[in-house]
Design brief:
The protein contains 5 helices and 5 strands, in the order βαβαβαβαβα. With about 100 residues, the chain is α/β, with parallel strands linked by helices. The chain has a 5-stranded parallel beta sheet. The longest helix has 12 residues, at about 70-80.
Amino acid sequence: MKQISAEELKTRINNGEKLNIIDVREPAEYAEYNIGGKLIPLGKIMGMQFDEIEDLKNEELILHCKGGTRSTQACLFLEQAGFTNVTNLTGGVTAYMKL
């Protein structure tokens, strides 16, 4: 699993890169604040309910949560499920919001 800093992610978003960002928080957290990623809560990932990203197995996926713990778990799980290019946002949206 790779890591990406909030600064690097923000730069890539601002540069208009097409990114596959996955938010593993809960719907209420997502509604409060999000950076435009696809919402797939950690519980769904752990329950193998990620059909909507199955076709992205070999593309870069950037996962985030609030602080980095849940997204780390999700990254590890997706790697075990055959995803080859998962990246964790260090510090989660908490770090991103500080920019």
